[in-house]
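lol forgot to send this yesterday, sorry. struct tokens for the thing we talked abt
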């Protein structure tokens, strides 16, 4: 499921709330940031506003490939799913829903 990349921050946050997420915020990472393997206790969604991120699922039998996501893309991570993230060289701004 994708959204137009031209959404404002307010519009994007409203859209993520409309998907049923109650805790919604916008986050920006600088280029080259890295999140070591980790997991969350609930489903999370990420709506990319600018830049890109690459995600991998260490130890997953179903999701063996790294995937890169850019503006307008929605990325969901299931509760308890171990994942690792690399931010593109241009950085990344995204709306998170928890």
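and heres what i got for the seq, position by position
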């Amino acid at each position: 499921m994708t959204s137009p990349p031209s959404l404002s921050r307010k519009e994007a946050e409203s859209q993520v709330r409309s998907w049923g997420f109650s805790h919604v915020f916008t986050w920006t990472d600088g280029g080259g940031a890295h999140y070591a393997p980790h997991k969350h206790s609930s489903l999370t969604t990420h709506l990319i506003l600018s830049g890109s991120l690459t995600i991998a699922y260490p130890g997953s039998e179903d999701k063996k490939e790294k995937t890169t996501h850019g503006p307008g893309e929605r990325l969901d991570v299931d509760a308890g799913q171990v994942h690792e993230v690399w931010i593109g060289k241009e950085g990344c701004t995204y709306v998170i829903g928890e």
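The helical segments are 9-18. anyway ping me if u want another try
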